[in-house]
Amino acid sequence: MTSLHETGVTVRAPAKINLHLGVGPVRPDGFHPLATAYQAISLFSTVTATPADDWAVTCTGQVGIDTAGVPLDDTNLALRAAKLLAREHGVDQPVALHLDKGIPVAGGLAGGSADGAAALLACSLLWDLSLPPARLLELAGELGSDVPFGLVGGSASGHGRGELVEPLEDHGRYDWVVLTFDTGMSTPAVYADFDVLHEGVEVPDPEIPPALVAALRAGDARALADAVGNDLQPASLRLRPQLAEPLRAGLDASAYAALVSGSGPTCLFLCGDPDHAASVAAALSPYGRALVCHGPVPGATVL
Ligand code: C5P
């Protein structure tokens, strides 16, 4: 092992939102075909990988982030990422991983996936593996549907079960209020409810609205507001009906658009500029923790 990295490598990766989440009929493997437009926003998780005698993972939360639900065993996505990379590339050097989470847990913002993406990049550098980006993306796709996007960042399309990611041309900056709640939601439970809602109904193949692609290309937040959407939102609202109230309150407070993020419960409010976002956030603060963010931001980055 080179002495270059004895002090460890730190990588940060962003939260994702789905500007549009198109969901198709459940596949035989239990996953759903997606056509989604991702955007990386300015909430980050950092992972530090340090050579160690044994595999280990520790976790802290940035201000306001409750990490009680983060597993510290072999199911932890960052640890799974490190071990997968070691196994696939013949590395015999355990690492201690430290996660510092700034992305709410189980919120529909792919916080665990960001940890997985950051751990993959950090360990590949720590171990001097010199892997082509396509190989890291392939391993990321094995770990979870949203992990490849954590590496790519920016604005991007996602197909397959979300793991097939291609950058989208985006000339805008978008100001978001991200409303988070203390209690998370289970992604599998929301997809299962989507299936119940669509029983006996023919679900068309999902697609990303061309108007959304055009809005990003033009960098036009108002046009983007007209094109956002989430096919999981009815299921999330059925499981958590009280989300209807803040969604309505955000629109009443003049947000351009309001939608559930991924499987929820986090809600997203598109605004015109940072001051607008601050005033929408103030109106939403009775309902949860309202964070002012912007996107797009880059994917996993070495610090
Ligand atoms: O891939 P990931 O581990 O993030 O998926 C978590 C769960 O979400 C899956 O086990 C599945 O129940 C559901 N899912 C799905 N279709 C997708 C992505 C996720 O049904 N495209």
UniProtKB/TrEMBL annotation:
Positions with a binding annotation for ATP: 104-114
SUPFAM superfamilies with a match to the protein in the record: GHMP Kinase, C-terminal domain, Ribosomal protein S5 domain 2-like
Keyword hit for ATP-binding: yes
GHMP kinase N-terminal domain segment(s): 76-154
Gene Ontology biological process terms from the UniProt entry: isopentenyl diphosphate biosynthetic process, methylerythritol 4-phosphate pathway; terpenoid biosynthetic process
Residues at the active site: 16, 146
GO molecular-function terms, A-Z: 4-(cytidine 5'-diphospho)-2-C-methyl-D-erythritol kinase activity; ATP binding
Record keywords: ATP-binding, Isoprene biosynthesis, Kinase, Nucleotide-binding, Transferase
Protein name: 4-diphosphocytidyl-2-C-methyl-D-erythritol kinase
Lineage: Bacteria, Bacillati, Actinomycetota, Actinomycetes, Propionibacteriales
Gene coding for it: ispE
